[in-house]
Amino acid sequence: MSQNYTQTNSLVGTQPYDVYQPTDSSKDQTNGSSNGHSNGAAVAQKRSPTVADAIANMMEDLGVSCAFGVNGGAMAGLWGSLSNSLLQVMNCRHEAGAAFAAAEAYFATGRPTVVFTTAGPGITNALTGLFAARGEGAKVILLSACTSSPQRGRWAIQETSSHTLPTEGIFTSGTLFNYATTVESGAQLPQIFRKLALGLSQPGAFVAHLSIPTAVQTSPLDRMPLFQGMDCSLVVPHTEAIVKCTQLLSEGPFAIWVGFGARGAAEEILQLAERTGAAVICSPRGKGIFPEDHPQFVGVTGLGGHGSVMTYMQQQTPLRTLVLGTRLSEPTSFWNEALVPPGGFVHVDIDPTVPGVAYPEAETFAIQSDIKAFLQALLQHDEHLASASVTALSLPRPEGQTIQPGSDSPVRPEVLMEAIQKVIIDGTDAIVMAECGNSFLWSTHLLRFANANRYRISTGVGAMGHAAAGVIGAAAARNGKAVAIVGDGAMLMNNEISTAVKYEIPAVWIVLNDARYNMSHQGMEMLGLKGADASIPQADFAAIAHAMGAEGIRINKEMDLFSALEQAMVATGPIVIDVVINPDRRAPSKGRNAGLASQGVKSTPAQKTELHVSFPQVSFPNA
């Protein structure tokens, strides 16, 4: 295997990322958040500024516009300062929901976000959402309270110290936090700001944790610290790497495999594909970066993907595949060797540790670069690629399902997806996100997007409740519609309907209500494993929504779908569409059971034929 990594120096002060630059003029503005307070600078004029005031000021200078969290006594000083800042501060019902909302607010706007928590369980409750934020590539800063130094080790209420929580990983930089520190003095803040600014200026995920002891939050400062901005250059490919890449791709037909990391380069990907005739496939998170209605789009790979991809690889095998911004992880590829072309991969990623990991035996020419910068350089050499391109006369297309309209009750999931496509995707600009489980499978397989950054799913952590809570972050941050397609299990686990009601957030929940953890139920059935009970009592989510102060519509018949969805998209506040679906319709997947079998999960002999790629397969929990 050949691996050739190229690097450029990451320089400070050459190419600014405007969102992270200080905005001194903003200090004279009034608060734009829904809490209606005046800004922190005005408050600070009446008294000496505190460390908490300075931290709120720091968040403004870093470009943060939204903060999500749950209040508590240990962080009262910090909560007060945030509430009197320019940030839009939203008090959620659970810290995990706040963290999911913060991650999706980042993806909706590209601006870093804040999660705030009190001590003890406030921090630990948020960890799953923060873990997901880092895995998804978000930029989120956790501001938490911890026990003041004199009280540590004395069993303070919700004591948060090395006596009660593991220091490594929670309060230090590592696998969970890119940067973490405890603020013991206001004198630390300028250097903390520089580290945060540098981290936020880098491409990819940046999840940080500032833990501020309760007493330190309200300690006075002689003056507000000066926070100086920092710029960082893009990582661009060496000329030699572009020349080598051009040579490899000119040796024969190639495909383009698009991942979520390429979402900022949609225009360049379209140009490259159309100039060369290359077939395009994408990861589940990469849906819409290349228009799914384009004749060169072959399909989605991995979980919830399309059999058309395998048809293409078998019948019109490319010599190489240009991989852009995807780890080729299990949900994206199932590590299926049939997806490896004879000449291997040209793999471009901002993270030099990514190429060559998913398929260690495949020939891989690796390039570390920002995807957009790489493609812009490659397009300058496209005349060398054109001679090797293939004008696809009959590229396979993602399979569709012909469903006859009817008045079925309960509702068939396929019919629900068709209605979502026509009313929400084709008729509005709303962000659409799908929860893990069968919601993910139905949505990824059947919905079609022609634009980047409209579809959000989690294929890393895949936590239940991510979309159910995250939808409020996306809707609030963009001040527009966001739609979550969720299962009843996830909706019962974690939703933020009450938060959306309080702040009049125009979020829409579409609940696939089948009284089951149906991915688990169907997966166990397909694998021939008996005895496990995945049923749950059927809840009335429309009634729950009404009880919380939101709108709610319960749908039992297919004929009522369109009117309900149209009503949801014109609603000015939060609304829940509770759809009672047919639990026996098998969700589409192309390989999860085979992946489980390779890890030692055995199916019964009668079920083994279901593992062949030519058959639609039912998935099983991605855990």
UniProtKB/TrEMBL annotation:
Transferase in keyword set? no
Q: Which UniProt keywords apply?
A: Thiamine pyrophosphate
Which SUPFAM superfamilies does the record associate with it? DHS-like NAD/FAD-binding domain, Thiamin diphosphate-binding fold (THDP-binding)
Is Chloroplast one of the keywords UniProt gives this record?
no
Q: InterPro entries in the record, alphabetically? A: DHS-like_NAD/FAD-binding_dom, POXB-like, THDP-binding, Thiamin_PyroP_enz_cen_dom, Thiamin_PyroP_enz_TPP-bd_dom, TPP_enzyme_TPP-bd
Q: Where is the Thiamine pyrophosphate enzyme central domain?
A: 255-378
Where along the chain is composition biased (Polar residues)? 1-13, 22-38
User: Where is the Thiamine pyrophosphate enzyme N-terminal TPP-binding domain positioned along the sequence?
Assistant: 50-160
Looking at the record's lineage, which domain of life comes first?
Bacteria
Question: What are the start and end residues of every segment in region (Disordered)?
Answer: 1-45, 588-623
One Pfam family, please name it: TPP_enzyme_N
List each copy of the Thiamine pyrophosphate enzyme TPP-binding domain by range: 436-579
Q: Which family does the UniProt entry place this protein in?
A: Belongs to the TPP enzyme family.
Q: What is this protein called?
A: Thiamine pyrophosphate-binding protein
Starting at the broadest rank, the lineage of the source organism is: Bacteria, Bacillati, Cyanobacteriota, Cyanophyceae, Nostocales
